[in-house]
Amino acid sequence: MLKRTITAIVAIAVFFPFLYFSDTFMLPLAMSVLGLAAAYEMVGCVGLRKNAWVAVPSYLTAIVLPQLSLLSDDSLPLVFAVAIVYMIFVFAATVFSRGKLDFTIAASAFTGVFYVTVSFTSIVYLREVGKYFYLLVFVGPWVSDTFAYICGRLFGKHKLIPEVSPKKTVEGCIGGIVFAGISYVIYALIIKNFFDPSVMPNYIVMMIAGMIVSVISQIGDLIASVIKRRFGIKDYGWVFPGHGGVLDRFDSVLLTAPVLYILSQIPAFSGILL
User: Fold this and answer.
1) For residue 195, is pLDDT > 80?
2) What DSSP letter does each residue of the chain carry, written as one string?
């Protein structure tokens, strides 16, 4: 527990400058670095790090996608185009490998890398929605993770989905949902009272949004667990001592980011939040 706490403090200290200067190139740079590390872990998970035809385009895609936002105000078509090129390249590699590259494994690599890369890229685009809005992608999942763990340890009696994640409990899941909702309300109060009095959040909607995000983030966590169990690994990596790799630390954020971005494109929804 001490190692996990120290790692979390150090990680926050390192990550803070990138968040503080998020309106510059710093945030896309951070997302490219995290995306590259996550892609490396995912490619390693499926056992294709030594296959340059899959590994290299996976790493390049992870680096490039978050940077595309710097090119223009409407770079989403470019993101889509790069993703399609990446898909074609990986799938074509299975054809020209003459049977040496299993299509199922290559498809797993593509799906996994596409998932994590689009997720980190979504965080960059969320920053364009608002300098306070995009932080919700971290607040909800991490508060949910923390209190799901605490509530599970204190009150957990009923297993959630033991075939996927043996330690997660129904009580922990509910605790994570409730406290994530509360955290969004507290976050809105802090922003309004200490940073921007012009912000007019709807606290009921904030509470509901936090609870929804908790559910999504917990599904994201379980997705990461399913992949690990399928390929027989305990952790994706070692970047964060006590936590594992980037995918182990950001697994709950990954699914939340694109979903929250989609919701942010609904004016009525994003306007009510912050």
Assistant:
1) yes
2) -HHHHHHHHHHHHHHHHHHHTTTTTHHHHHHHHHHHHHHHHHHHHTT-TT-HHHHHHHHHHHHHHHHGGGT-S--HHHHHHHHHHHHHHHHHHHHHTTTSS-HHHHHHHHHHHHHHHHHHHHHHHHHHH-TTGGGHHHHHHHHHHHHHHHHHHHH--SBS-TTT-TT-BHHHHHHHHHHHHHHHHHHHHHIIIII-TT----HHHHHHHHHHHHHHHHHHHHHHHHHHHHHT-S-S-SSBTTTBSHHHHHHHHHHHHHHHHHHHTSHHHHHHH-
Residue entry with tokens 């590390």: 37
Neighbouring C-beta atoms of residue 38, cutoff 10 Å = 30
Nearest CA-CA partner of 176 in 162, 191, 160, 192 = 160
Q: Which amino acid is at 23?
A: D
pLDDT tens digits, residue range 56-94?
Answer: 999 999 999 999 988 877 888 898 899 999 999 999 999
User: Which residues, including other chains, have CB under 8 Å from residue 15's CB and lie 6 or more apart?
Assistant: 30
What is the residue whose two structure tokens read 């199922």? Answer: 104
